[in-house]
Amino acid sequence: MIKFRCNKLGRDKGLEGFKAEGIMPKYRILAGKALCHELKHKLIEESEEVKDAQNLQEVIVELADVLEVIDGLCKAYGIDHEELSLVKREKYQERGGFELWRTGQVSEGGQKRFW
Hints:
The chain is mainly alpha-helical. The chain has helices at about 15-20, 30-50, 55-75, 80-95; strands spanning about 105-110, 110-115. Helix 2 (about 30-50) packs antiparallel against helix 3 (about 55-75). It is extended and about 60 Å long. The N and C termini lie far apart (about 50 Å). The mean pLDDT is about 85.
């Protein structure tokens, strides 16, 4: 019997793939704080995969995963997508977006800070 340990949040239909291959995984269904905690870790994991993407198609696939995790976080916290979009628009009006793709450097008290 093959044994391996995953210990990370998986997609809902992931178990079906294991079972189709004759693998009977041990798992637990998360809710509440535990689910929120794991979704936050999953967001970091998926964001790293966006960063590591090598071409446009990989970026698209990984961004879709990030959006799926964001959807999960919204459900877990009871956040309505309209509420999230409103806050996003407000922040955009106040601080702008990321369309300019620029970085800069300023010195504050002898320390360099990038923006």
